[in-house]
């Protein structure tokens, strides 16, 4: 089959690789119907050391079950399935608590930008889409594998609820879907910090009440001006770089929560008396346990109440994946969907 | 009147200073019945630059109201009052939310180690003790000004409830009262990390189910051994130094909460993928809004159900305050109570 492989920074290629096969009795093999490039795929795209042997990449996909191991229950061959970017056994304490990303038998997919993929822990991970699926829903269903529940996780972890004031840092797909999530959870002030007008316009449609294009101290001052000098209860940080963290510190209200879902590209950060401690700021977040949220988020996608799939602004074939990375990295494209049959 | 003043590191003196007087109509003047030395007083005791002019110090006191400004309501001259270490107006959004430590008209007392003290925002801060007060309750009432609600705040912010597993780092007064608080809130496993047997013995009486005397990697390994390798849901960090933070990272369970109430003596700390993010660890805490908790904690103190005052292991007069600092700094004494009449 054909698959995308990353060989180093800026070096993604499409090549023929062996078809995936069942290895464990808990595995499935899924034919990929739609996949996409994630903002977090851009981190290795920036920094991966060069290697002759490429690594398969991609962790978001909706597909059709082709084969199932003997121990897989709950899905059938032929089902259309949504695959959370983290697989998990759905049997341990962490899965039962809704923290599937910490499942000891879990892991992260790699290799979804391909025609097919092997899915470990298929019972605990895959969610079959009920009924006949309208093809027009595929983009929104695809967001349920990662970016939409990730935005939702940011908002839930921050305690966003009716009347909350929220700042969202980042106008990528996760940031925009954090806006949508905050709106669904009842936030009344949603300030989107981002500078790409096409994206922030979509953010307004998703529920942003204010857009702040400035960054750093100037951006913080604008957030404070909107909130009577106080900052917002919740800051949803969907970038992962230090300037975004610093913006979060400046935008959060005393007693508020900074909820991070952008993978931190730093290890140390200010957390002392002058940053988090003095005003009881909480820092939370992490990889979203997507599997915990799908049943909750799916109905509004299926009935068209929300259209998170609007974050996709380009559809390409598998051979164009390298160009998809380039377009997202150059911010020509917000999020690229890949149809492996094209 | 006589008062303790800090002139520099290791240099606390008792001297005659002017009596405090009402300045604002919202002030009270309170005669100090009992005060004490706090673990956080030891931070300036270690690091304050030398100065000819000393600063009055101390922020925990129970006293008798001597004078009241025109705008003070809710307390009367002659009342015995508990004074939260942070004063606040009890009129702003933050006070109404129970975050009095972020009140814009609030601040922190300084000068309680004295015969009298001026109390700003007396209406919003002072809590009159009902009825005739049994003198034997004074130590426990004094803990309600800071260390007991601070331990309680650590546990509440960490979400400790029935069945929680908890690690408490630090066997000082706050750590021991965090143990007591976790027990009151229903925690079933309470691991106290501390190496002073007299203190950890008191911790066991307060509710600790395990004591870990080792520090660093060895201490972390012991906590993990007690918890099937997982760590605890909550880690209450009552020290404030970096090794305690690192211990907290090692002791917390995936999805758990590190709740800090020891004033951080560092600004930067690990918070990235490998420390907090990967397993959705939440970092919370800050100065305890003591005023928010007093009504809740007072009844069990008054009826003797709990005896948080057992953290005091020495009573001294005002002239002995310098010796009290030395004894606490040398860990000869857990917590020193000061009776200004002695």
From TrEMBL, chains A, B:
PROSITE patterns: ADH_ZINC (PS00059). The keyword Zinc applies. Keywords: Metal-binding, Oxidoreductase, Zinc. This is Zinc-dependent alcohol dehydrogenase family protein. Belongs to the zinc-containing alcohol dehydrogenase family. PANTHER family: DEHYDROGENASE, ZINC-CONTAINING, PUTATIVE (AFU_ORTHOLOGUE AFUA_2G02810)-RELATED, ZINC-TYPE ALCOHOL DEHYDROGENASE-LIKE. InterPro entries: ADH-like_C (IPR013149), ADH-like_N (IPR013154), ADH_Zn_CS (IPR002328), ER (IPR020843), GroES-like_sf (IPR011032), NAD(P)-bd_dom_sf (IPR036291). Residues 10-338 form the Enoyl reductase (ER) domain. Its cofactor is Zn(2+). It comes from Nesterenkonia halobia.
